Amino acid sequence: MCICGGINIITTCDIRVCIEDAFLSVKEVDLALVVDSGSLQSLQSIVGFGNLMELALTTIWLSGLEGKDLDLVSHVFYAQHQLNEGVREFAQGWDLTVDQRLYFVATLNSAILLSSDLVEAVAAVKQKWKPNYSKL
Questions:
Q1: Which of 13, 32, 62, 111 is most solvent-facing, going by the fewest CB within 10 Å?
Q2: Which residues lie across from 75 on neighbouring strands?
Q3: What's 22's DSSP letter?
Q4: How far, in Å, CA of 104 to CA of 71, rounded?
């Protein structure tokens, strides 16, 4: 279950995963509590205003799949062991040394510096126009 403060916590995460039979709910109203307005703003940016109002005012329970449909959840696994393995695989992709991370950033930045889009971005900021980036 992910309720009340748990929803507040997950809205600050870039990637949110759960299993199919998870339950998610903004339950503060049922508990005679006031929802933290910061979490409501974060939640609105994820699920949209109408969905926020429904979640906050009706305190409905969402399954993991329903959470995915609202973008409240990034990925749904069908069993706990699948979730554990999926998260482990994702985390291993980020298990880099400081030197590897610096090399990665330097490589990306060097590619950007060679792009005409950098010149366009700087000119757009200086001239206060919307940049027109090249097609990828």
A1: 32
A2: 17
A3: -
A4: 29
